[in-house]
Amino acid sequence: MPKLSKKLKEAHTKVDKTKQYPINEAIKIAKETSTTKFDSTIDIAFNLNVDPRHADQQIRGALVLPGGTGKTQKILVLTKTKLKEAIDAKADFVGGTELIQKIQKENWFEFDVVVATPEIMAELGKIGKLLGTKGLMPNPKTGTVTTDVVSAINDIKKGKVEYRTDKEGNIHSIIGKVSFNDENILKNYNAILDVIKKAKPAAVKGTYIKNVSISTTMGPGIKVLVDY
């Protein structure tokens, strides 16, 4: 296990690992325990009482964070029918078959998110594994397979984030940057908490959200008290 730096050791002393903090207090502690020289991302982690082996307990979707993400993402639009719309909406890269081939042959990944129109999905499926391992495969559930490429691009630029359960039933996302004011971080927290609550599978009995924690890049985890 790597040794903790002096700053990180000090940060850990500010967090009571046995306590669940009200979200307003957790945000303040997250900012106080950020140890990086750059503007750290504030992450959120949900531990859910779900079994992702069952299709009806797999949770996946996307939302636009009302306070934004603080990140600029490069957008690739793959389409045959909406080229002009995508260019006018200022996607970073726009094309069709030729860009799919570029990804396949040149291992080209100079983008952060892919939006695709339905008619190109059959071709895109040929490199599905390549995109899937990097979490870049477009999906209708997250609004990245659509005929309305303009709305998809605008949502991503406004601060759209995707979420999905991993094999252990956890969901990870971001809720902002350390430089954000507390109000915007709180808005983002409430927005993602709301969608996770509403996504509760019918098959889940008892406690659904087991734990929630927030942390900054390389900072300690801070457990959050969740109101049900």
TrEMBL record:
<protein>
    <recommendedName>
        <fullName>Large ribosomal subunit protein uL1</fullName>
    </recommendedName>
</protein>
<dbReference type="InterPro" id="IPR002143">
    <property type="entry name" value="Ribosomal_uL1"/>
</dbReference>
<dbReference type="Pfam" id="PF00687">
    <property type="entry name" value="Ribosomal_L1"/>
</dbReference>
<dbReference type="GO" id="GO:0006412">
    <property type="term" value="P:translation"/>
</dbReference>
<comment type="function">
    <text>Protein L1 is also a translational repressor protein, it controls the translation of the L11 operon by binding to its mRNA.</text>
</comment>
<dbReference type="GO" id="GO:0006417">
    <property type="term" value="P:regulation of translation"/>
</dbReference>
<keyword id="KW-0689">Ribosomal protein</keyword>
<dbReference type="GO" id="GO:0000049">
    <property type="term" value="F:tRNA binding"/>
</dbReference>
<dbReference type="InterPro" id="IPR028364">
    <property type="entry name" value="Ribosomal_uL1/biogenesis"/>
</dbReference>
<keyword id="KW-0694">RNA-binding</keyword>
<dbReference type="InterPro" id="IPR005878">
    <property type="entry name" value="Ribosom_uL1_bac-type"/>
</dbReference>
<dbReference type="InterPro" id="IPR023673">
    <property type="entry name" value="Ribosomal_uL1_CS"/>
</dbReference>
<keyword id="KW-0810">Translation regulation</keyword>
<comment type="subunit">
    <text>Part of the 50S ribosomal subunit.</text>
</comment>
<dbReference type="GO" id="GO:0003735">
    <property type="term" value="F:structural constituent of ribosome"/>
</dbReference>
<keyword id="KW-0820">tRNA-binding</keyword>
<comment type="similarity">
    <text>Belongs to the universal ribosomal protein uL1 family.</text>
</comment>
<keyword id="KW-0678">Repressor</keyword>
<dbReference type="InterPro" id="IPR016095">
    <property type="entry name" value="Ribosomal_uL1_3-a/b-sand"/>
</dbReference>
<keyword id="KW-0687">Ribonucleoprotein</keyword>
<comment type="function">
    <text>Binds directly to 23S rRNA. The L1 stalk is quite mobile in the ribosome, and is involved in E site tRNA release.</text>
</comment>
<keyword id="KW-0699">rRNA-binding</keyword>
<dbReference type="GO" id="GO:0015934">
    <property type="term" value="C:large ribosomal subunit"/>
</dbReference>
<dbReference type="GO" id="GO:0019843">
    <property type="term" value="F:rRNA binding"/>
</dbReference>
<dbReference type="InterPro" id="IPR023674">
    <property type="entry name" value="Ribosomal_uL1-like"/>
</dbReference>
